[in-house]
Design brief:
With about 130 residues, the chain is mainly alpha-helical. About 75% of the residues lie in helices and about 0% in strands. It comes from Drosophila mauritiana (Fruit fly).
Length: about 130
């Protein structure tokens, strides 16, 4: 029976980095799918939405940052973490990926604060008046 210490010694840095890259990629795909849905909604509603231009800008920024993070994830997956020079490049790319994802999530949070939540059904206020 192996001990915890033996398992830690057997851990491969490339395998860990690959799993982390895949997890970040899945988060990026989920956010990109949500943004595509929100973009479709805001384009259908058009200028009638109170914050149309702001929503369009925030959604577009979020999509651009997600695509940039996705491209960097692909580049990062090609890096051999056993080589010291490549490992330093990988760490630098990882910091950029984290920054892009953080800014993308920040844009998504701002969107939700301005009333663009597809989970909440939007009804016409005039219909609710007696």
């Amino acid at each position: 029976m192996t001990t915890f210490l033996e398992n830690m010694k057997a851990m491969d840095a490339n395998r860990y980095a690959t799993k982390k890259t895949i997890a970040q990629g899945m988060l990026d795909i989920a956010l990109l799918t949500a943004n595509a849905s929100q973009l479709k909604y805001i384009l259908q509603v058009g200028e009638q939405h109170q914050f149309y231009k702001l929503m369009l800008i925030l959604i577009s920024l979020s999509i651009v940052m997600q695509v940039a993070a996705g491209l960097l994830l692909v580049i990062q997956s090609l890096i051999n973490m056993h080589n010291t020079k490549d490992r330093n490049r990988g760490f630098a790319i990882n910091h950029f990926i984290d920054a892009f994802i953080f800014l993308s999530v920040f844009c998504d949070i701002m969107k939700m604060n301005f009333g663009l939540d597809p989970a909440v059904p939007h009804t016409d206020v005039e219909l609710l008046k007696p």
